[in-house]
Specification:
Layout: E1 20-24, E2 28-34, E3 42-45, H1 46-50, E4 63-65, E5 74-77, E6 82-85, H2 91-95, E7 102-109, E8 114-123, E9 136-142, E10 150-152, E11 166-171, E12 177-183, E13 189-195, E14 206-215, E15 222-232, E16 240-241, E17 245-251, E18 259-262, E19 265-266, E20 277-282, H3 285-290, E21 291-293, E22 299-302, E23 313-321, E24 327-337, E25 345-351, E26 355-356, E27 364-371, E28 381-385, E29 391-395, E30 400-405, E31 416-425, E32 432-442, E33 450-451, E34 455-461, E35 469-472, E36 475-476, E37 486-490, E38 494-495, E39 498-499, E40 504-506, E41 512-515, E42 526-535, E43 542-552, E44 560-563, E45 585-588, E46 590-592, E47 603-609, E48 615-617, E49 623-626, E50 640-645, E51 653-654
Parallel strand pairs: 2-8, 9-15, 17-24, 26-32, 34-43
Antiparallel strand pairs: 1-2, 3-6, 4-7, 5-6, 7-8, 10-13, 11-14, 12-13, 14-15, 16-19, 18-22, 20-23, 21-22, 23-24, 25-27, 27-30, 28-31, 29-30, 31-32, 33-36, 35-41, 37-42, 38-39, 40-41, 42-43, 44-46, 45-49, 47-50, 48-49, 50-51
């Protein structure tokens, strides 16, 4: 069986795909790539094309951002600066029938903040074959049909565009029909069967033909459909729609079963020839999942989730057929209207945490980006933070904000902040979202150690043991860790020309001061040491205090008798006249004690005497007086044993 060449278009040129780079004003770039490139394929080098330093891309946190898409498709290799394919791109899935298909990115760099707009144009490749809506086209044609009668055929669908779309048709060779290809107002090509020879039902009741649609891609792709013609009596009117184009608006999130539009076609024939049924003649795979049509009423209804952010418009073709197979066509344009159904999304693009407490007001802490997938006023976003923190948001480029400090920070007062960021759109009603970020304030060594006392006094009993504790000093530093770690030391000084280190030492960790030697109250009674408290910061801070050490007396010296001076045999001789009267001063014992205070308070006592009633001694004065008149009968020699005792505990004495 042969094929006719009538109405077949041949194109002598092919579309060659290449990576194309265009430079746009303000340093922005546009690239052009074919769809279906493999993951990891290099599109171009952003660093080279924008004059950026490749080595600094990672340090500047280079990244690609894009609005309104749940897939990234492209990304940047921060090590090489290459713009690469991150996910395989299907142009038909991404843009449908649109002629222009592009991805828009923002190249964001920090330190300083820099923004470049990158556009990637997606070019179509011939990866889809023409596809007829049904595997078979049934036509019923009356045998009385005139030569030249035309019968429109179902238009196949090719998801590709331009030359990769349907370009030509071929019809199996036969004696009854030829094919005439027509071009619709929107550039689509559809076929019409043209009756070349009158039908004779008595000779042949059925005619079967094969129609092939061929696109213009390289290599070419094709699709076929079987045309089955049943020869009947005359049906000379085809259905006519009330409108050639239906334009409707449909809010997103419309529930399943919502009537989008009811198309209507009329047929002037009677009986079965005038009964009209409806079906989609051309519809994309995505739209077929969202809309259905009632064959009897022509009502197009929602049967899937309608999301403006997924697609904002759909175009479908509807065909009305009468009982004999004559058909009329209409176009339905469905515009999806946006609802404020997406709350703003807050993204932390950069965040410095912790921050030193000595940062200046106006220091940038982080970069915030706010996105809203809605459109127009529904995507206009206002961003704010609560008022009780020393931070604020400064609007930057597009929907970027800089989080900066507004006042001085002091870790010793507040070491942590919880900052709640709220983003609200301008929809009706408005939607908002919040995010709380935690900012820690790191310590700076800005506080010197401070002693608990302005000065210290310590008392040490003489004859102490070397190494014994004298006292403890304490200094506080509110800084953190090493900045608040206090180390104690003695400042160099001298005591009577002797270094203070010969008298005392200090524990560097605890601040306990120890005696290095035994102290003697009788040699010196006090000395001062100067203690330095230094923190471990960089540079270190310090404070000092004076410690006055007082030596207290211990009863370690016996009384010494100065008068009468003892002879070699320890006896003292005193001459007393015979006629001494009672109360007369006979002699006086003079003694001293090297101790002080009560340890040097002396008391005198006659321990033993030849005549106990003859003499008395003053308890504290040491004066020896006659207790009665000395008579001739008293012994010429009186022996007195006198004890001199101090008031210490225990007391010491001398005889």
């Amino acid at each position: 069986m042969g094929y006719t060449g009538s109405s077949v278009f041949t194109f002598l040129f092919r579309l060659a795909f290449c990576h194309c780079l265009m430079r746009i004003s303000n340093g922005d770039l546009s690239y052009s790539i074919p769809e279906e490139m493999k993951r990891g394929s290099v599109i171009g080098n952003l660093a080279k094309d924008l004059g950026l330093d490749t080595k600094r891309l990672s340090g500047r946190k280079a990244r690609l951002d894009m609005d309104g898409s749940r897939q990234r498709y492209c990304d940047i290799n921060v090590n090489t600066g290459d713009l690469i394919v991150a996910e395989t791109i299907d142009r038909e899935e991404l843009c449908g029938p649109k002629v222009s298909c592009s991805l828009k990115y923002e190249l964001v760099l920090e330190k300083p903040l820099e923004l470049h707009f990158i556009t990637v144009q997606i070019q179509d490749i011939n990866d889809n074959s023409p596809r007829f809506p049904n595997a078979r086209i049934d036509l019923e044609i009356r045998e009385s049909a005139d030569k030249g009668a035309r019968y429109p055929l179902d238009e196949p669908h090719d998801s590709d565009i331009g030359l990769n779309g349907i370009q030509s048709y071929s019809l199996e060779r036969n004696v009854y029909f030829i094919l005439d290809v027509q071009t619709s107002s929107d550039g689509g090509k559809y076929g019409e069967l043209v009756l070349e020879k009158e039908l004779d039902r008595e000779q042949q009741q059925e005619v079967t033909l094969l129609l092939t649609a061929v696109d213009g891609g390289t290599p070419q792709r094709s699709g076929t459909v079987v045309i089955h013609v049943t020869v009947l009596d005359a049906n000379d009117n085809k259905p006519v729609f009330s409108q050639t184009v239906y334009k409707v608006r449909l809010p997103e999130n419309s529930p399943t079963g919502t009537v989008v539009v009811a198309v209507s076609a009329s047929d002037e024939d009677e009986g079965a020839n005038g009964e009209v049924s409806y079906e989609f003649s051309r519809i994309s795979d995505k739209a077929a999942k969202l809309f259905s049509i009632d064959k009897k009423t022509g009502e197009i209804k929602v049967q899937g989730p309608i999301d403006y952010e997924e697609n904002s418009e759909y175009e479908v073709r509807v065909q009305a057929k009468d009982g004999s197979g004559l058909a009329g066509n209409a176009k339905v344009m469905i515009e999806i209207t946006d609802l404020n159904d997406n709350a703003p999304v807050i993204l932390i693009k950069s965040f410095n945490n912790p921050i030193p407490e000595n940062v200046l007001p106006g220091t940038e802490v982080g970069i915030i980006n706010v996105q809203d997938e809605d459109s127009e006023g529904n995507r206009q976003v206002r961003c704010s933070i609560q008022q009780n923190v020393p931070f604020k948001l400064n609007p930057s480029i597009k929907n970027y904000y800089s989080l900066i400090t507004t006042g001085e920070l002091d870790r010793e007062i507040i070491s942590d902040y919880n900052i709640t960021i709220t983003a609200t759109d301008d929809g009706s009603p408005p939607l908002s979202s919040s995010m709380t970020i935690h900012v820690s304030v790191s310590d700076v060594n800005d506080n010197p150690p401070v002693f608990e006392e302005q000065s210290y006094s310590a008392y040490v009993i003489e004859n102490n043991k070397p190494g014994s504790s004298i006292c403890s000093v304490t200094a506080r530093d509110p800084d953190w860790r090493q900045n608040g770690t206090v180390i104690y030391s003695l400042l160099p000084s001298g005591i009577n020309g002797v270094p203070v280190s010969s008298f005392s030492s200090i524990n560097g960790d605890t601040g306990v001061i120890h005696a290095v030697r035994t102290f003697d109250y009788e040699q010196f009674r006090s000395f001062k040491v100067h203690v330095l408290a230094r923190d471990n910061g960089s540079p270190p801070l310090s404070g000092n205090v004076t410690v006055s050490v007082f030596i207290t007396d211990e009863n370690d010296n016996s009384p010494q008798i100065l008068y009468p001076a003892p002879a070699g045999n320890s006896l003292m001789t005193e001459m007393v006249p015979k006629a001494t009267l009672a109360g007369s001063l006979v002699s006086k014992v003079i003694a001293v004690d090297a101790d002080s205070g009560q340890n040097a308070w002396l008391s005198y006592l006659i321990v033993k005497s030849t005549d106990p009633g003859l003499f008395t001694i003053g308890l504290h004065s040491g004066e020896i007086r006659a207790q009665r008149d000395i008579a001739e009968s008293d012994s010429m020699e009186q022996n007195l044993v006198i004890s001199v005792k101090d008031n210490g505990q225990p007391s010491l004495y001398n005889l």
